[in-house]
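Hi,

Apologies if this is the wrong queue. I'm a grad student, and the batch job for Cell division protein from Stutzerimonas nitrititolerans produced an output file that my downstream script rejects. I'm not sure whether the problem is my script or the file. Here is the sequence I used:
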Amino acid sequence: MQYQPITGKPPQLSLFEGLIAHSLTPFADIATPPPADDRLSEMTLSGSNGHCRLLLAPILRELSEATDTRWLTLIAPPASLSQRWLRETSLNLDRILLLPANESQGALDLACKALISGCSHTVVTWFAHLDRASRSRLRAAAELGHTQSLNIRLGN
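Support response: The file is valid. Your script probably expects a header line. Output copied below for reference.
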C-alpha cells in the first residue's frame, strides 16, 4: 500500500523531518537551566580532616585558577586550611583573598559584604548550618555582586 496524502490537509511530518525543518537538534538540552538568581551552592564533606582537605584541594585549585580575574575569597576558613596548606596544594595564592571573621564582624556579614562588592567571582564560607534567612541573605548579596557563593560543610 502506498501513502496517498488526503487532499485539503497538509501532510504530517515525522518527528525528525519536523526538527530538521525547524533547524532544531533532537534531544538537545532538555533540562531546564537553573534560575539566574540562584547563586548559592552548598556541599558537605565528611570524614577525617586530612581526607576532607584532599577532596577540597582540587576544587579550590580550580576556583583559584578560574578565567574570571576577580578574587576567590575564603571567609573564616577552618584552621586546617592554613596559609601553608594553601601553598602546598598549589593554589594560585595571587588570586585568593583570606578574610577572618571577628567579634565586630561575623562571618555571615563579612560574606555578604564580600559578595555585594563584586570583587570576587566566588566567596567560600564554612557554615555548619544555614537557616532560611541566612540563605536568602547570601543569595541576595551574590545576585547584587554578580558573584557565586559556595558554602562548604566539613563534618566528621
